[in-house]
Specification:
This protein is α+β, with helices and mostly antiparallel strands. The chain contains 5 helices and 8 strands; from the N terminus they run ββββαααααββββ.
């Protein structure tokens, strides 16, 4: 079976009924991997695909929202964003400055500005649910795959939470 969509084209399901779509999308001077997935195509509605297409088209705005959500958690000493920043400072030490795109004197702001948006995963079967519909994955060092922050988005593109990959 397959699902046809104006933006995604023909989404064919695998033998287990799952669907998967992947594309590299340019965001500024970097490429972001965008994946759309669902374990069962029967759980994917046309509205979910429309919402997913809108998110892919609005990737720059979603990136801005994700970074704003991270910045809003910096003052909370127990937040995962603060823990991530402290871990990066401790792990990288003097090498941290080499990864920063701008040095303003506020390490937290500089680190969040310097994070690279690596990927967006859209969980098409979660449309309208309480679980994340899309997840933005950020890394300061693209080679350190375990050191990432995840921004979880609802199907209306609002930020649900910011978590670390742990």
């Amino acid at each position: 079976m397959a699902i046809e969509h104006d933006f995604f084209g023909l989404l064919e399901s695998g033998p287990d009924g799952s669907i998967f779509w992947s594309e590299n999308v340019e965001l500024g001077d970097q490429n972001v991997t965008v994946d759309l997935t669902a374990p069962d195509q029967e759980d994917v509605s046309p509205a979910a695909l429309d919402a997913a297409a809108a998110m892919v088209s609005a990737l720059e705005e979603l990136d801005r929202r994700g970074r704003s959500a991270m910045l809003s958690e910096v003052d909370d000493r127990a937040s995962e964003v603060t823990e991530y920043i402290l871990m990066q400072q401790q792990t990288l030490g003097d090498e941290l400055e080499d990864l920063l795109v701008d040095i303003s004197g506020d390490a937290a702001v500089d680190i969040i500005r310097s994070l690279q948006l690596m990927s967006m995963t859209i969980l098409a079967d979660e449309h309208g649910g309480e679980d994340p519909f899309a997840v933005l994955e950020y890394a300061l060092d693209p080679d350190a795959a375990d050191d990432v922050l995840l921004v979880n988005l609802a199907s209306d593109a609002s930020v649900l939470s910011v978590t670390s990959a742990d």
